[in-house]
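Q: Sequence in, structure out?
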Amino acid sequence: MNRISTYMMSQRSLTAMLNQQGRVSQTQLQLSTGKRVLAPSDDPAAASRILNINGALGTVEQYQNNADRAKSRLENEESILEGATNVLQRAHELAVQGNNDSLSINDTQSIAKEIRQLQEQMLSLANTRDGSGEYIFAGFQSKTRPFAQNGIGNYSYQGDLGRRQLQISPDRQIADGNDGFSVFMNVATEPTAQGNSVAAIAFGAIAAGDIVIDGGNGNGPVSLGALPAAASAGERADQLREAINRVSSQTGIRTFNATPDTLSLTSVSSSGISVTLAGSANAANTGLPAGIPSSAAPRNIFETLEQLATGLEQNRPVDRSIADVEHALNSIVTTRTSVGARLNAIDDQVEINADLKLSLEKHRSEEQDLDYAEAIARFERQMTALQAAQQSYVKVKGLSLFNYL
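A: Exactly. Output:
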């Protein structure tokens, strides 16, 4: 038999009130946070699922952050490439304008001055930094200035070929830029045959049909016609220059005096220049080479502009530079296309990630969020029970035999 004491009854009443008060506090906390599961003990299974969903949401948010960073860098690059496109388009216009035999050397030198300014502008664009101070076209060496001028007309690349890949989905990475070497340095040039004659040592007349040249442009061999006797190597060089340039629309060969006695021959978009001498024409009285092979080595954009400016300063034909500027422009446009494609891919993936995030948040809400109607009704019941317990405690506390004596 247990003894029912006043102390025991008081303790039991007090414990019941405290327990009820704890349940009321728990419900109040749920109502204030809007969450049903506040601790793993509230619903262990749901807490585990919520933890997994939170981890997945954190990963998706990181993908979105990566996508935002990649998009920002690519938008910066696209802006720079747009500027480079404008520079090359203007250089091309000036090159075509300056490639005119009717212009004086003062005219072409004035055009060359603007080309020099465009060259400096292009170098500045290639060395642009982003908002965080990193060079956009330096590859992994983002703190190193990528392009440097090493003396007149010589340029070097100080970066590397790295392209940072950012994860924007579980199975998709995207490059946040392009290395400067592929964009500005390793640019294709037009196949060109270029070489020099030597000074003639005989100056007799040359009959029509005895000098036949082929510029390698697909039009076939063309005769230079007859040449009268010359008094000197310089006069013979002038005769040949005029004759070759007279048929340049057929052969594609342009020539100018490399020295007073020799010629420089150039054929752009060429498989090579071939010269056939017969009858009254020979190496001694023409100085022309038998053949000049074609070549097309990659070159950086800055040196292409340097060659264009130099040619204009010397009032020489710049057909080759015009073609090389077109190649540079095509290279920049191709890179811009690649950047645009990546920007579109990022936008698509951001939408996919946003849909996934919304789905995960919905599932988390189902597991974690509070049913306010049920919680409010429960809170009212608990408050009623607490008030009843408090009133009962007061009654029990007042019971004493002394009240009945």
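The two ends are 27 Å apart (CA to CA).
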